[in-house]
């Protein structure tokens, strides 16, 4: 039996265990997928050595922290600087980033990033998820800047009317607004948004965060992270199922 799981903190509302178990049950696949809330990142090593896991998904706050403990890292994950999928291959722990596939496919189906490259994108948050978004947008020639409360290219207080006028895409990579803290939202100047703006939130629970609600009220087009989550999960399954080696 294939044994898989998810590591992170506060995983009680995670999408992945139910998604994968339904997938396994429907297809008659002999596998299990469990969530493991870890106090320290190093605890994930025992899941392979003592519990016989074959692979893991990694979520906040461990996407960067797991990297020093892996035997090998896929070239794309190394370039991004974050890992969200681990596969056991010939006794080695190999790290991948399937978020990049999920975000690229999800945003491309909504906004033609191959043609709409004459504007600036603002990426809210400076963690592992923001690195993935930066990687995708940069590869498509879209100028982008990180906005953070303490580090990044910009602080939230730097978001002036002139700067917002140069922006068309805003991507929330912070956990602000995630259930149950649904009244939280990134502190951007929502009054500057218009109908030609696109707001993308990596959060999927709730379906419409306060960030998206406030943007929609200004006429902006909005999208949550549900499709990205499904697409990255399927890419993780492709890696685990076929035991693909790093390129």
Task: Explain how this protein is built.
With 247 residues, the protein is an alpha/beta fold. It folds into two domains: 2-97 and 230-242, Rossmann fold (3-Layer(aba) Sandwich); 101-227, Rossmann fold. The protein has eight helices and twelve strands. The protein has helices spanning 16-27, 44-49, 75-80, 99-108, 128-139, 161-165, 210-217, 226-242; strands spanning 2-8, 31-37, 55-58, 72-73, 85-89, 92-96, 120-124, 143-148, 154-155, 167-172, 198-201, 221-223. The strands form two sheets. It has a six-stranded mixed sheet with strand order 2-1-3-5-6-4. Helix 4 crosses helix 5 (128-139) and helix 4 crosses helix 8. The radius of gyration is 18 Å and the shape is elongated. Mean pLDDT is 92; it is low at 243-247.
What's the helix and strand layout?
Blueprint: E1 2-8, H1 16-27, E2 31-37, H2 44-49, E3 55-58, E4 72-73, H3 75-80, E5 85-89, E6 92-96, H4 99-108, E7 120-124, H5 128-139, E8 143-148, E9 154-155, H6 161-165, E10 167-172, E11 198-201, H7 210-217, E12 221-223, H8 226-242
Helix pairs in contact: 4-5, 4-8
Key traits:
single chain, about 250 residues, alpha/beta, Rossmann fold, 2 domains, six-stranded mixed sheet, six-stranded parallel sheet, 8 helices, elongated, disordered C terminus
CATH topology of the largest domain: Rossmann fold
In CATH terms, the superfamily of the largest domain is NAD(P)-binding Rossmann-like Domain
Shape descriptor: elongated
Instruction: Assign the CATH architecture of the largest domain.
Output: 3-Layer(aba) Sandwich
SSE-based structural type: alpha/beta
Strand percentage lies at 15-25%
Assign the CATH class of the largest domain. Alpha Beta
Q: N- to C-terminal separation?
A: 27 Å
Mean pLDDT: 92
Number of helical runs? 8
Which spans of ≥5 residues are poorly predicted at pLDDT below 50? 243-247
């Amino acid at each position: 039996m294939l044994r898989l799981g998810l590591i992170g903190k506060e995983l009680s509302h995670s999408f992945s265990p139910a998604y994968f178990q339904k997938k396994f049950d429907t297809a008659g696949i002999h596998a299990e997928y469990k969530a493991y809330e870890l106090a320290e990142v190093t605890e994930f090593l025992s899941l392979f050595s003592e519990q016989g896991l074959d692979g893991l998904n990694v979520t906040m706050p461990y996407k960067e922290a797991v990297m020093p403990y892996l035997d090998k890292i896929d070239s794309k994950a190394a370039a991004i600087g974050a890992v969200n999928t681990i596969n056991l291959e010939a006794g080695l722990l190999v790290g991948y980033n399937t978020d990049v596939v999920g975000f690229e496919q999800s945003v491309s189906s909504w906004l033609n990033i191959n043609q709409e490259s004459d504007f600036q994108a603002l990426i809210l948050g400076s963690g592992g998820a923001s690195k993935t978004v930066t990687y995708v947008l940069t590869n498509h020639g879209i100028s982008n800047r990180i906005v953070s409360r303490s580090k990044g290219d910009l602080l939230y207080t730097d978001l002036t009317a002139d700067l917002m006028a140069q922006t068309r895409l805003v991507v929330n990579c912070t956990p602000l607004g995630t259930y149950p803290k649904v009244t939280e939202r990134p502190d951007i100047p929502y009054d500057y948004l218009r109908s030609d703006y696109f707001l993308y939130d990596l959060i999927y629970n709730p379906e419409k965060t306060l960030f998206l609600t406030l943007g929609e009220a200004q006429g902006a087009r909005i999208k949550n992270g549900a499709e990205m989550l499904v697409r990255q999960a399927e890419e993780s399954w492709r890696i685990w199922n076929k035991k693909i080696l790093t390129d």
